């Protein structure tokens, strides 16, 4: 039995989230897509570890404390005395949320394949990585591919979230690298928004066809926000409906979906059940500000799901 259900790899960030549209009032919290996903999974009871680099600064210490508080193993977190921990601001406008980053040259962007804790990747049932993990620098991208190779060689499953951030890399490079990574992934979690930029398609069926033609052969779950998600297992596709909530901030909802999905798979749910549960968790995560603070507990998800987690 693996020591970890899920090991995540990527960049954690300090978050400043605007709490009143148009006003210069920001709530300090935590972000970073793969870190958010790992915390979402740990809150659901999964055994998790996170692999990254943080700066030798106050923000790096706060992140380490956060993971310890959330029962996430930090033995694969390196501390870089020569670089800072990255941060970002979230502002809310009519088009949704807008991210402004201060992460260039961050500690995480200095990750190298030689530093990777291969042993921890080998000891996990799932490796979770994302487009952001690969976009932050060339050496971080190499580190992600090294981890993917290692997970595959040791029988782990690779989960890839598209998380496209065009502020971090040009669309042609993003498409080429994500295409390569999605071929190697056992589970690919694209969002409809990301895929529109990569493929030009606005229709879920055409988008899924593009993904299959590009060589993805594992499970593909196309996330469509409040409209739910399409589960494509390579033979059949079906829509798992979204759940309505009064949302205030969608930051990290996709990460919550990813982490919760893997946590439920690790517990033995079938795909449809895990997607249904993860949809509910992701909806709940939009009811508060910030990527981490509103991530739900199992009791909150159970109470929200009609008929409980086992119902269809
Ligand atoms: O999905 C939410 C993340 O985007 C947020 O926490 C910040 O990781 C982040 C990023 O790089 O955009």
TrEMBL record:
Listed GO MF terms: 2-dehydro-3-deoxygluconokinase activity
GO terms for cellular component: cytosol
InterPro entries reported in the protein's UniProt record: PfkB_Carbo_kinase, PfkB_dom, Ribokinase-like
Pfam families to which the protein is assigned, alphabetical: PfkB
Domain Carbohydrate kinase PfkB positions: 9-297
Protein name: 2-dehydro-3-deoxygluconokinase
PANTHER family with a match to the protein in the record: 2-DEHYDRO-3-DEOXYGLUCONOKINASE, HEXOKINASE FAMILY MEMBER
Entry keyword set: Kinase, Transferase
This protein's record includes keyword Transferase: yes
Entry's family note: Belongs to the carbohydrate kinase PfkB family.
GO BP terms, alphabetized: D-galacturonate catabolic process; D-glucuronate catabolic process; DNA damage response
Organism: Bordetella genomosp. 11
Superkingdom: Bacteria
């Amino acid at each position: 039995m693996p020591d970890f259900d899920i090991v995540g790899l990527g960049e954690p960030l300090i978050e400043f989230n605007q709490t009143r549209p148009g006003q210069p009032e920001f709530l300090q919290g935590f972000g970073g897509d793969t870190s958010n996903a790992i915390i979402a999974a740990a809150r659901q009871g999964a055994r998790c570890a996170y692999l990254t680099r943080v700066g030798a600064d106050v923000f790096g210490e706060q992140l380490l404390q956060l993971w310890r508080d959330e029962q996430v193993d930090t033995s694969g977190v390196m501390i870089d005395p020569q670089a800072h921990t990255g941060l970002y601001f979230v502002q809310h406008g009519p088009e949704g949320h807008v991210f402004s980053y201060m992460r260039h040259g961050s500690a995480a962007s200095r990750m190298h394949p030689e530093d990777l804790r291969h042993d921890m990747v080998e000891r996990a049932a799932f490796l979770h990585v994302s487009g952001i993990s690969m976009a932050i620098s060339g050496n971080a991208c190499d580190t992600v591919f090294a981890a993917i190779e290692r997970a595959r060689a040791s029988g782990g499953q690779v989960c890839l979230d598209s998380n496209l951030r065009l502020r971090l890399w040009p669309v042609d490079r993003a498409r080429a690298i994500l295409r390569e990574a999605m071929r190697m992934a056992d589970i690919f979690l694209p969002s409809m928004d990301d895929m529109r930029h990569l493929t030009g398609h606005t229709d879920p069926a055409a988008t899924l066809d593009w993904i299959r033609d590009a060589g993805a052969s594992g499970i593909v779950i196309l996330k469509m926000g409040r409209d739910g998600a399409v589960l494509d297992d390579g033979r059949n596709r079906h829509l798992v409906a979204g759940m309505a909530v009064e949302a205030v901030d969608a930051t990290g909802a996709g990460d919550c979906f990813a982490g919760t999905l893997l946590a439920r798979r690790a517990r033995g749910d079938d795909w449809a059940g895990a997607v249904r549960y993860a949809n509910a968790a992701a909806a709940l995560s939009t009811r508060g500000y910030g990527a981490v603070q509103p991530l739900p507990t199992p009791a909150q998800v159970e109470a929200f799901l009609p008929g409980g987690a086992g119902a269809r």
